Amino acid sequence: MGTFFQLLIAGIETGSFYALVALAIVLIYQSTGLKNLAQGEMAMFSAYIAWQLWSWGLGIWLAAIVAIFLSFLIGMGVQRIIIRPVQGAPLLTIVIVTLGLFLGFNSLAGFIWGYLVKGFPGLFPGSAWQITSSVRISAAAAGGFAVLLVLAGLLFVMFRLTKIGLAMRAVAYNVETSKLVGVKVNQVLMLGWGLAAALGAAGGIIAAPKLFLDPFMMFGVLIYAIAAAAFGGFDSPLGAVIAGLTIGVLENMAGFYIGFIGTDLKIIVPLILILVTLIFRPQGLLGHKIVVRV
Amino acid sequence: MSFLEVKNLEAGYGPVQVLRGLDFAVEEGEVAVILGANGAGKTTTLRALTGMISTKGSVLFDGEELVGKDTDAIVRRRIAHVPQGRGTVSQFSVEDNLQLGAYIRKDKAAIAADKEKMFVMFPRLLERRKQAAGSLSGGEQQMLAIARALMLSPRLLLLDEPSLGLAPLIVRDLFNTLGEINREFGTTMVVVEQNANLAFKIAQKAFVLETGSIVAGGDAKTVESDDSVRKAYLGY
Ligand SMILES: Nc1ncnc2c1ncn2[C@@H]1O[C@H](COP(=O)(O)OP(=O)(O)OP(=O)(O)O)[C@@H](O)[C@H]1O
Ligand SMILES: [Mg+2]
After folding, report:
1. Which residue of A249, B24, B68, B213 has the smallest Cβ count within 10 Å?
2. pLDDT of B236
């Protein structure tokens, strides 16, 4: 029983960063219908920014917050400069552009910071709470989960209770009507990209101490995050959070309890989940079937 | 100078030119009706007025040039447009649609009061306050689309075939309501309408559009009594 809970906690820890990146992917998908394959690389780049600020002497929390803010600006810039010109282009063009972004951020990180792994300081103390003799909750796991809950909560409040949230939801569903009520659609789309980049940055910064910072750090996370978005429903933020956590837990459990999977084959868990979702519930657990887009 | 003054308006879709130099004018507080066969360019005219397609020529609204401005900037001048086929967010509740209609307004108390006014004007919407717009009947959706536009507290209201798909009785109610809105708030309106008989009841101006040009226009009474207009649009 102790092992089970320990795996559950470890799963929630990794699941928290899958969920954050998945949330970022969903945020962009919801407002533009685009699945941003570069979300993981952007998060990795953000983690490097935090590392850089920290190595220049900033406290890690301050470095993280500044990096998240810079990522917000980078996200808006990417939308303005790279995505807006191809808005409305055929799907394949857009997929290629996001692949280009993926490679761009990856090689830019390699160019600036090199390919050697960098030690990344934890945001939370290395301590842990001993719950029972065999169950420990590390501060890192609890902290990462708390960050996820706070950011998801803020996002929810923004969407449901603020005017800009109303406009973002309106743009996601109906661009023409949004324009006709005076929404500046391009600005809303930029804001969406900025927020997504900021969420992803939080995911990358929380993941970095555990995954070790190098330009390839987020490859795996991206696959898990896409699986989470597909499983939860690309148009459901709540689905992304629940699915991200679920996948983190499943992955850890499968690695331990299913003999042949072990740590090497863990990656098949999200792949199977994507496959099963696509076959039995293509819109995802909490997604909506009918998507009408103008 | 007129409240809305359109001069040599040209617009189209890509290489296809639809409007070939329209001229018309509407005074403040007037209702103008635009008549025309299917494909004449009525919808295109309204889309050009709110900058939804690329446009040449001149549209002066209260002395200010609108051509070249973005839709959101035009809407900020309090021009509301109910496009053909609704113009609501079908996934939003009735209430959220009304709230969205007031997006550019800052006067919270007045917005809340206007919302209640819409529920008095369209009691059906009150009963369906929390329901998704997409799940309303066609007539209810049309009422919501108009209410959404009125939430802007518009100085100019553009309506594209508001009677489309509605039962005759409901259409009559709708035009009574539009007439009331015009009288009570002095809202200037440009209404595209196939149901010319009803439209003439509330209109002071009328324009007839044929393949992108205005072939008759001016005082509604004069246009109404024109023989060719009567034959083509009024059916008697
Ligand atoms: N999105 C579009 N792309 C290309 N051509 C279009 C588009 N929309 C309309 N047209 C063309 O423009 C012309 C005028 O269309 P418009 O919609 O303005 O007509 P309308 O007078 O509103 O007709 P209806 O009474 O059927 O609504 C038509 O010939 C139509 O084929
Ligand atoms: Mg039309």
Report:
1. B68
2. 64
Q: Could you tell me if the CB of B43 is within 6 A of ligand 1?
A: yes
For B172-206, the pLDDT digits (tens) are 888 999 999 999 889 999 999 988 888 888 999 99
The helix, strand and coil proportions of chain B, stated in percent and rounded to the nearest 5, come to: 40, 30, 30
CB A2 within 8 Å of CB A8: no
CA of B42 to the centre of ligand 1 (A): 8
pTM (two decimals): 0.87
Residue B128: what are its φ and ψ, rounded to 5°? -110, 25
Q: Give all domains of chain B, ordered by start, each with its CATH number.
A: 1-78+156-236 (3.40.50.300), 90-153 (no CATH)
Measured from the Cα of B161, ligand 1's closest atom is 27
**Separation between Cα atoms, residue A260 and residue A7, nearest integer Å:** 17
> What CATH code is carried by the domain that includes residue A237?
1.10.3470
Which position has the token pair 């923004």?
A: A158
| Structure confidence at residue B86 as a pLDDT band (50, 70, 90) | confident
Q: Tell me the pLDDT tens digit for each residue of A129-149.
A: 888 888 889 999 999 999 999
Q: Which domain holds residue A89?
A: 2-280
Is residue A293 within 8 Å of residue A234, measured between CB atoms? no
Across residues B73-91, what is the average pLDDT? Answer: 93
Q: What percent of chain B has pLDDT over 70?
A: 99
What is the spatial distance between Cα A138 and Cα A123, in angstroms, rounded to a whole number?
12
* Contact of B74 with B144, CB cutoff 8 Å: no
Chain A hits for B81, Cβ within 8 Å: 180
Query: Which residue is closest in CA terms to ligand 1's atom 29?
Result: B39
Interface A–B counts its CB contacts (< 8 A) at: 59
Compute the distance between CA of residue B143 and CA of residue B158 in angstroms, rounded to an integer.
14
Using DSSP's 3-state secondary structure scheme, residue B13 falls into strand
Beta-sheet pairing, B4-13 with B79-82: unpaired
pLDDT at position A293 over 70: no
Angle of CA points B166, B171, B172, to nearest 5°? 160
| pLDDT tens digit sequence for A74-122 | 999 999 999 999 988 888 999 999 999 999 999 999 999 999 999 999 9
